[in-house]
Amino acid sequence: MNIPLKLIINMAALLLFLAVPPVLNAETQRDDLLRQAGELYNSQKYEEALKIYDEAEKQFGPDATLMYDRACTLYRLGKYKEAADLFAKAAKNTEDNQLNAAAEYNRGQSLYRLAHETTPDKAADMEKLLKQGEQAFRNVLNVTPGDTEAARALERTRRELLALQQAKQQQQQQQQQKQQQGDNKNNQKQNNQQSKGQNQQQGENQNQQQQGQQQNNQQGEQQKGNNQQGKNNNQQQQQNDNKPMSPSDALNTLAEEQNKAADYSRAIQKFSDSMSQKDREKSMQELQSFQQELNDLTDKIGKKTDPRSEEIQKAKQAQKQALDALKQGDLEKAEEKQREAARSLKQAGEKEQEKENNGQQQNQQNNEQEKEQADQQNEQQAEPDTGTEELKDAARDILEQEKRDRERRQQTRQKGGVNGVEKDW
């Protein structure tokens, strides 16, 4: 919506041509120049008007009114940066509340136009200019609280700021996902190379099996342990690379958005009397939609973290009460419940952060214990089992002795003789 500029041109009444003191004559000449510039401005001859304003400033020096008039002309010429700076000087150098409010309002409009002239690759500059424009509109409302145009301009600027910040966050998430995909691709390539090297190593181990069965078994067990360790390392690396936004970060972000919704409720409540019925209804509908989105996000995040969390349950209850209050038009109660929900979400985020920190410590301890157990098993496998070897040797001796006795008995039967039975008791 284009808001007409509040052009203020202060002209004194024309004096009759009389013999007057030099100071009064100078003021008459200044007023004549301002009158000429004003006529050119109204005729949309802005370049010519600006030249006369410059001449007036050169002859008589700058004042708040002249700076304001020059700034309006610069705005019409599309020189928004110069206009915004000059509007700021005019507001600073006047004690007239009406002139101050007009200068701040037009400064906000200049910054808004300047923000929309920035290129898409300079989103940070656009955000900075919109924030400055937002502050200018706030300054107007501090001086003239009933200014509906300033209130609408403030709300429009704040909504664009919110949309810009959300787009910025979405872009960052997309960049992170792209980076993760690239990391996963590199990891897959490394895993393939590692697998190829392991296959070559296994082939060499098979060739070395001819050197001895015992040595081959030991190498096989050791290789098996190495493969399992490499698999565990790869799985852990992939899990770290694909790590999504943590629950604590999601809850903290949601708490910030909930506070912004409370700010909207306060703004509409503050300027409700000066807004038209149509604008107020539109603002209320948009705020209700925003609150409903926050309620849905809280429900989704709560299901993914801890549905039984007391803080999340409190936040959901407060959000529901806030939405009901908005539907009933009770902005004061809505803001109260929105702030309450934001505090509960913040507390839930802090608890989730503690769980995440504790979980990381526990995982580290478990990994260390598993590593120690694996090292102990490898050491036990590497040591020869002397007890088992001794049993094998004893069994072999018994079998060989039994074989010799059986052969001797067969030879005796063939000769026709009978030997007595050997008693072992």
Describe this structure in words.
The radius of gyration is 43 Å and the shape is elongated. Mean pLDDT is 78; it is low at 6-24, 237-242, 382-388 and 416-425. Among the domains are: 1-92 and 104-117 and 124-144 and 151-157, Alpha Horseshoe (Serine Threonine Protein Phosphatase 5, Tetratricopeptide repeat); 250-266 and 289-354, no CATH class. The protein contains 13 helices and no strands. With 425 residues, it is mainly α. The N and C termini lie far apart (118 Å).
Largest sheet geometry: none
CATH superfamily annotation of one domain: Tetratricopeptide repeat domain
**Would you tell me which CATH topology of one domain applies?**
Serine Threonine Protein Phosphatase 5, Tetratricopeptide repeat
Please identify the oligomeric state: single chain
How many H/I helices? 13
Beta-strand proportion: under 5%
Distance between the termini: 118 Å
Specify the overall morphology: elongated
Taking all residues together, what is the mean pLDDT?
Answer: 78
Structural class: mainly alpha
Per CATH, the class of one domain reads Mainly Alpha
Poorly predicted parts:
6-24, 237-242, 382-388, 416-425
